[in-house]
Amino acid sequence: MPEAPLTLPTLIRTIRNARTQAEERDLVQRESAKIRGAFRDDEPDSRASNLAKLLYIHMLGYPAYFGQMECLKLIASQKFHEKRIGYLGAALLLDEKQDTHLLLTNSIKNDLLHPSAWVQSLALSTLGSLGSAAMFRDLAGEVEQLAREGQPSVRRKAVVCAVLIIRKVPDLIDAFVALGDQLLTDRTHGVPHGAVMLIAEMCEQNPQALEHFCKRVPHLVGILHNLVVAGYSPDNSISGISDPFLQIQILRLLRILGRDNEETSDSMNDALAQVATNTETTRNVGNAILYETVLTIMGVQSASGLRVLAINILGRFLVNKDRNIRYVALASLQKLLQAEGCAVQRHRSTVLACLTDPDPTVKRRALQLSLALVNSSNVRATIKELLDFLSTCAPDLKSDCASGIFLAAEKFAPNKRWHIDTVLQVLTMAGSYVRDDAVPNLIHLIGGATELHSYAVQQLYEALAQDISQQPLVQVATWCIGEYGNLLLAGSCEEVEPKQVDPEEMLSLLERVLQSHLSLPATRGYALTALMKLGSRLQGNSINRIRRLVSIYCSCHDIELQQRAVEYNALFRKYDHLRSSLLEKMPLVEKAGYSEDGSEKEQPGRETSISLHISEAVLSGNSEPPESSQVSDLLNLLGDPTDPSPLQPVTSTPVATGSFLDLLRDLKPPAAALSPLAVYEQDELLVEFSMERPPLEPTLLLITATVSNRAPGDVTGFSLQVAVPKSFQVELLAPSGSTVPGQGGPPITQLIRILNPRKLPLRMRLRLAYTLPSGTAVQRIEEVSSFPEAAWQ
Q: Which Pfam families does the protein's record reference (predicted)?
């Protein structure tokens, strides 16, 4: 005797009691087979119960496609409970990608004309959830008729369905404009809410509809005024506020109608001020209305006093107990900073207080806004607060905080000493989290402050003696000791109390850096160069100690360190008479800036000045035969064949010049310059590629992506991803930020390294994602194949 089919409650209970996945799967397969057999035998009495069981099986993730036609049969039934199961099954098992759903059009049309409000509601719900453009065009007339003349519950559903129709088929807007005017005057609760949604959708889609409904602003303002002053109504009020959902929808519609329309904006100023001042903030409902009011005030051409009131509302949100409200306030203030900077600055202390919030997301938002609030008038106080935060914040925030402090100090530093002190504090507290360009930037800063050399080297020496774990700090300190160690030996410092350092103590500290397991190869390279530079200023046993330390690394596993040590050791053995002139102080190299369009400026004469400086240091006495012999020996430092003929100009021996430049790795030949390439220009964003190819690595292409924003508002959440063919290798370094400031702000940059070993034509696919000032999220994919031949050949 065959096993009887299970009822729906029994099926649910049995599946829940299954102990293993295999037992559940076996039970579902057996029951699905029974249901399929019942459908095949066309048993009308059990069709509804079988489809209900199949829908439960579908919700568990098992296939249920064979029940689609049964849904259509149940929808055509005259029994309400069967029709309800049929519509539910259609909503779950069908979608507009399947041709089967087109068979629903006639059944839905018949049910829209059914005398029962319950059947009409079922048809409207199903049409809104899975209707296609073709179905909407066929049934728009019936939906519009129900929205005008149906029962209140049906009218509400019909209006929502009309919103979905317009969203998918904007061509039908003209058929619903008159409906929007009629429903706006309807007093049935819930219908005006749908009418406002319908009008907002039409205004977003059609400029003619926007112009038409601008004339209804006084009526909308009147409705909003009545809701604000209305007393408590048990049917419509929530937490003491009358119909908050309708208030929010009206505020959104006013924001659409008043955008770029001064006359319309003036007519709603009084109503917005009334909502902003009379709404209760003790409950979350009132806060939601106030937030929507702030967005409307800032989205239309409102009066300046009203905009200040909106900023103050967000300022009150910052001290709210609800962390979600604090987060929303911080995000909103950051968007409004460009347009209302002075008003936002009044809440700077409250924003800084949010840095101590226990919620990490609020803390991150507060950090971003605090960094954006820094300017020349508050840089000292704000950076002091941010440094305190940096010392205690979580590791995942240290990188953003340190980078932000670096950028703010570089832009708004009141003097060079304050700038140096600030960067040193950041390196001391979070040296492992700073960006890669922190070390060269600080070196350039110290090198340009001639009057602060003694102060900087003394401060760095003391910091290095206390902690050698922060690698960027160690690198800057060792560089300064090598360049300005004579000031430490002399003990001359006017800024602070001078401290004279013993030469052996200084060498011991550098030896400790070399031997530390925490030191990176680059750090050891800085230390080796510092030892050599000190060797040109020390005498006696100190020289022998330096020579011994350098010779240890002649067999180092790291090729860079080994080559550097071998070259330095050759200086000691063969060319000791040239060591002092070679190891003079480094000349100051001009730092590349940015032009007005955001591209990197060329520095003419930059490499020429270095070459001239070296030529003057080495070739100052080239008229005498001994000096000429010395220079020939110098160019043949590592045993290259020499020519006994008279000395030729240095520029005619490129190989020898390369060997000479290997003495000081920091001096490299200039890279081949390529013209910038604009790869993306949409939404007022401009992305340009500045390319260069290092001469010593012909297969490497360095691309600096510069992102500038021509719009007045900030573009947030910007990210750039790059994909290249398999024959290439690509590496993206961290960008300088994720927020592209508005017009007049500095651009953000990101370095891209492309390795092209086969020198094939370069092709690239870019994926850009960002959020516009309006809040719209944008994601685009671009193909770039117009790279010049010089970039890859």
A: Adaptin_N (PF01602), Alpha_adaptinC2 (PF02883)
